Structures are given as C-alpha cells and as structure tokens.
C-alpha cells in the first residue's frame, strides 16, 4: 500500500500488515499458536536460535486501500472454536484498521488443531516407557 501526502509518500509492505494481524490474533484468549504442523515446528527451531517469524500462519493480500487476511491457527482445548475464530476475526479487523489504516474486507480463520496441555506437549511424548520383565 502506498499513500501520497504533503511532502512525500508512505509505503506499507505486506509483511508489516501480516505482522500486525498476527500480533492481534495471538492476543486472543484460546489461541495457542499460529501456523500449522510443519510451520510451527520450523517456528520452534527459529525461536530456539533467536530468529522468530512473528507473521507465521498469516497471509495477506494488500490492495491500494483494502486488505484480505488468512490466518491458520491452533486453538487451546477448552475454548469454543467458533468463539475463538470470531474473536480473532474481530481483533484482526480492529488492529489492521487502527494501526495500518487499511479497510479489512475479510479475515478467514482456519483452525487446524487443538492443543491439549500434557497431550500435545513434546515433553510428554518423550517419556520413556517401562521395560517389561
């Protein structure tokens, strides 16, 4: 998106819009993480070496004055999934319109998994099994 005004122009790149949308989505209660399977695994590796991708799981299509957002997320068990999706949608609409100044025409939310504490955690899967005598 490029805006012209007195004294010059302002360009807001797609990655900046995606990052704003991702931060807004992560703040919603019931969102465990953004991205799906492989993307989240790569994100964990990036986090471990200090190179986090805050916009993981978010795709944007930015026009001159409008934006469409697609978000892939993992919800936390115990939260109503449609409620989480609705809250993410509202948070992204608000965040992008307020901070970026673009009209959000749609926010598509795809919930690919549900995180169950203790069940999906890597630590619980690494437990050694007792050996039968």
Provide structural commentary.
The protein has helices at residues 14-26, 37-48, 81-99, 122-125; strands spanning 2-5, 8-11, 31-34, 58-62, 66-76, 103-115. Strands 3, 4, 5 and 6 form a 4-stranded mixed sheet that branches. A two-stranded antiparallel ribbon has the order 1-2. Helix 1 (14-26) crosses helix 3. The protein has 133 residues and is an alpha+beta fold. The chain has 4 helices and 6 strands, in the order E-E-H-E-H-E-E-H-E-H. The model is unreliable at 38-47 and 124-129 (pLDDT under 50).
Give a quick rundown of the structure.
The protein has 133 residues and is of the alpha+beta class. The protein has helices at residues 14-26, 37-48, 81-99, 122-125, and strands at residues 2-5, 8-11, 31-34, 58-62, 66-76, 103-115.
